[in-house]
Amino acid sequence: MTLAPIALTCGEPAGIGPEIAARAWETLGARLPFFYIGDPRHLPSGTPVTEIHNPMDALHASATALPVLRHDFPADNTWGEPDAQNAHGVVEVIARAVKLVQDGQASAVCTLPINKHVLQSGAGFAYPGHTEYLAALGGVDRVVMMLASPELRVVPTTIHIALDQVATELTPELLEETIWITHRALIQDFGVESPRIAVAGLNPHAGENGAMGRQELEMIIPLLDKLRAERLDIAGPLSADTMFHPAARARYDAAVCMYHDQALIPIKTLAFDAGVNVTLGLPFIRTSPDHGTAFDIAGQGLANPASTIAALEMARDMAIARAGAKL
C-alpha cells in the first residue's frame, strides 16, 4: 500500500510558516513526501518549487523541489506584516487540506501557525483557534490536545483558562473523556497495544490525602478506580513534581495532566524545539509545530524548522499506524 503524501497548510503567510516549510523540504526531500498548500509567491525567494495538480504527484516531485498545490491569495507577502486581505485564503487552505484527507488524497494534515486576530479581523473567523475549526470540519464536538516528543507525551485536561478557573472546569466528565480519547489515540495513532496512562493530581503532592486539597479524594481517585475497573491501565493520581524524571517517564506512554502549564512545562523543558502539537479525537490526523507565527523573526533566516520537521514525521508515523501501511 502506498501512503498518500501529507498536506502542509501555509498558515499565516507573513509569519515564519512559508520559510520553515521550505526548510523542512530541504531536510526531508523525497524521504518524507509532503505538499504545501498556498500561494507560491509567499515562499522565500529562490525556493525550488514544482506546482502539482494531484497530491499524489508529490511522491515524485519532492525529490527535486517543494511540491506546491497552488492556492492563490489576493495580496503579496510582507514578512512580519500580516495583510487582512489574505485571511480568507488562510482559512480556505485549512478546509482544503482537510477535504483532501477526507477524500483519501492526503494521509494527514500538518498545519503551520495562524494568527487568530488577523483571521478574526480579516475573515470574521468564528473559532477560538485552529483546533476548534478543525473539530468543526471533522464533525466532532470534543477533541484533546497532546504535546508529543520522543521523550514524552502529555495531555492537558483543561487548556487556555485562568488558573483560578481550573478547579471549577475540571469535572469528572471532562477528565474521563480526556482519558478515553487519549487511550484510543495511543492505540490507533501511536501503535501502543496496551496503553499505560499516568494521571497527575491537581494539588501539590496529589492533595496529600486531603491536607492540600480534596479534589483527588472526592473526584479524581473515584474516577480512576472506575476506569481501572473498565480495564484501563492507569497510574495516579500522581504528584506532578515527581512524574517527569526519566525513570518515571519509562513507566507510562502518556501523561494526562490537569492544566496547561502542568503539562507543557515538562515537555518544553525536554523538547523545546522538537515538540509536536497533535489533535486527538479527530476523524483524520492533524499535527502542528508547537510554536506561533513569530512575526519578529519572519523572513530573516532565523526560524528553526525542527518542530515542523518533527510534526511531519509524526504525521507520517501516525498515518502508518492508523492505516496499517508501510513505506
TrEMBL record:
Predominant place of localization: cytoplasm
Cross-referenced Pfam families: PdxA
Xref: InterPro entries: PdxA, PdxA_fam
EC number(s) per entry: 1.1.1.262
Record localization: Cytoplasm
Any Gene Ontology biological process: pyridoxine biosynthetic process
Keywords of this entry: Cobalt, Cytoplasm, Magnesium, Metal-binding, NAD, NADP, Oxidoreductase, Pyridoxine biosynthesis, Zinc
Residues involved in a divalent metal cation binding: 160, 205, 260
Residues where substrate binds: 130-131, 268, 277, 286
Cofactor binding summary note: Binds 1 divalent metal cation per subunit. Can use ions such as Zn(2+), Mg(2+) or Co(2+).
GO terms of molecular function: 4-hydroxythreonine-4-phosphate dehydrogenase activity; cobalt ion binding; magnesium ion binding; NAD binding; zinc ion binding
Gene Ontology CC terms, in alphabetical order: cytoplasm
Recorded superkingdom: Bacteria
Pathways involved: Cofactor biosynthesis; pyridoxine 5'-phosphate biosynthesis; pyridoxine 5'-phosphate from D-erythrose 4-phosphate: step 4/5
Record field: catalytic activity: 4-(phosphooxy)-L-threonine + NAD(+) = 3-amino-2-oxopropyl phosphate + CO2 + NADH
Requisite cofactors: Zn(2+); Mg(2+); Co(2+)
Subunit structure: Homodimer.
Role summary: Catalyzes the NAD(P)-dependent oxidation of 4-(phosphooxy)-L-threonine (HTP) into 2-amino-3-oxo-4-(phosphooxy)butyric acid which spontaneously decarboxylates to form 3-amino-2-oxopropyl phosphate (AHAP).
Note: The active site is located at the dimer interface.
Family designation: Belongs to the PdxA family.
Protein name: 4-hydroxythreonine-4-phosphate dehydrogenase
